[in-house]
Design goal:
By secondary structure, this protein is α+β, with helices and mostly antiparallel strands. It is about 35% helix and about 20% strand. The protein contains two helices and four strands. The protein is elongated and about 55 Å long. The chain has one domain. The strands form two sheets. A two-stranded antiparallel sheet has the order 1-4. The chain has a two-stranded antiparallel sheet with strand order 2-3. It binds zinc ion. Zinc ion (ZN) binds next to loops.
Length: about 70
């Protein structure tokens, strides 16, 4: 049981370090494109989830404050 807790802590530590180095992930709504294309492919609008930058702050990064 102790091994499981230690393993969990190690994994959480690795995740926290990764969130410090790579604080952003692709927006879930537009998958990082920052915009939604019309069916024709010519027109598009900016993604309202990420405001057009195509990225979201990862959950682990929020623990350390704003990037
Ligand atoms: Zn988006």
């Amino acid at each position: 049981m102790t091994q499981l807790i230690v393993l969990g802590l190690v994994l959480a530590g690795i995740y926290a370090i990764q969130c410090l180095i790579w604080p952003f992930a692709a927006c879930r709504s537009c998958s990082g494109a920052g915009k939604h294309r019309s069916p024709s492919g010519k027109a598009f609008r900016t993604c309202s989830h990420c405001g057009g930058n195509g990225r979201r702050v990862r959950l682990g990064r929020r623990l350390f404050g704003k990037p």
